[in-house]
Amino acid sequence: MLYQILVLMAVAGLFMILVSAVVTFQIKEHLHNNLSVMNSHLVSVAVAKLNDTPAEDREAVLLQMRRDAPNLNVWFVEENDLTAAADPGGRKRFGPFRLGDTLLGMRIEHVLGPKELGKGAPPRLFIRLDDGNLILAEWGFRGPPPPVVGLPFYLFVGFLALTFCALMIWAARSLVKPMAELAQSATSFGERSTDPVPVSESGPKEVREAGAAFNRMQLRINRFVEKRTRTLAAISHDLRTPLTRLRLRLDLLEEGDIRDRSLEDLNIMEQQINAALSFLRDGASSEQVLRIDVPSLLQSLVDQYLDLGFSIELRCTGKFSIMARRGELVRALSNLVDNANHYAAGVEIEASTRDNRIRIDVIDHGPGIAEEHRERLLEPFERGDAARQIRKGTGFGLGLATSKAIVEAASGTLELLETQGGGLTVRLTFPVARNQA
Fold first, then answer.
1. Which long-range contacts (CB under 8 A, 24 or more apart) does 7-16 make?
2. Class assignment of domain 282-431?
3. Is 362 exposed, middle or buried (0-12, 13-18, 19+ CB in 10 A)?
4. Distance (Å, rounded) from C-alpha 217 to C-alpha 381?
5. Are the C-beta atoms of residues 322 and 392 closer than 8 Å to each other?
6. For 69-103, how does the pLDDT look when each residue is reduced to its tens digit (9 = 90+)?
7. Where along the chain do the CATH 3.30.565.10 domains lie?
């Protein structure tokens, strides 16, 4: 980035030098071709000459100077001319001319400008010579002076300005775009999965190095999570063998309280292992992602629960579909319905679409979940009972976490909300499948 900034500064400096050179050239040409400047010089010489000339010879000298310089406008005037032209409360300065004493004993008494003489007229100065006589000198030619800069100069400066602005916009985009992409990737990475979100390694050297380091970090995190998942899954799977042997040995024992309690503990352990394996498999399923018709899926799920004698009601408006793994989505919804049935007498499912988003609400009117505990209960192995004890009829704290993982794998979100009138509403939100008929 340092080199790009130095290059921009060098280019900007070069532009400033070019503009300064062009302005200097234009001013020089203007001064060379400006007759008004030369006339002002002649007026200055004439006034100084008249001031040094005796009063009786001034008319002859002025006449000779007019013959040599026909455009010289200098006149002898009387006091009443100054009185008529001067404004007692007027200005003390006009442009570069300041009223008052000047060189060689002379004095500028008053200046007439365009306000009095008309637009485009050169200024006229009342000058008192050192002996008290008054002269009126016209400083320059009539008509507007030639422009200091012309159309070529404006075209040149406009071209430089456009080029410089385009260069600055290009430089800003080349600096900002990679950083914005890096920030977006850093924000999205890990939200729903640890799959790498590659960042293009472009832009300044420092930004390219940051992008490459971020890509390497994503790969390392992804490999670490995969290795951890495989390790935990292998451990859970290997535990099945000793549990099976224990079950066989217990089956050989005579019936009794110790045998029954041991078998119950083994059942709980097997359920824990199955739940852990199920949770660890989320995000690594080989099931194909398909377009799923949501109303049909929900109706088939509701029919299954009605056949089992559960109280469940479906309210669905419209026809819409999502892209997801059907088996995983059914498992997520089944977890939520089972939880609702466990804590309430009935379940309601509402599905609708709004703003290209599909919303599925699983509603119950049970005890609900306090707001301060909702975020915690979405984490794995977190349960609602304060004692954290596994008892018959309680889960292992993986149902909501598993459903959340499945929903997020389908680019959706899962929220826990309070049901109006009491209870819990689990809201699933998905994007509508594209190219939907």
1. 8/167, 8/168, 8/171, 11/164, 11/167, 12/164, 15/160, 15/163, 15/164
2. alpha beta
3. buried
4. 28
5. no
6. 887 888 899 888 888 777 666 666 776 788 888 88
7. 282-431
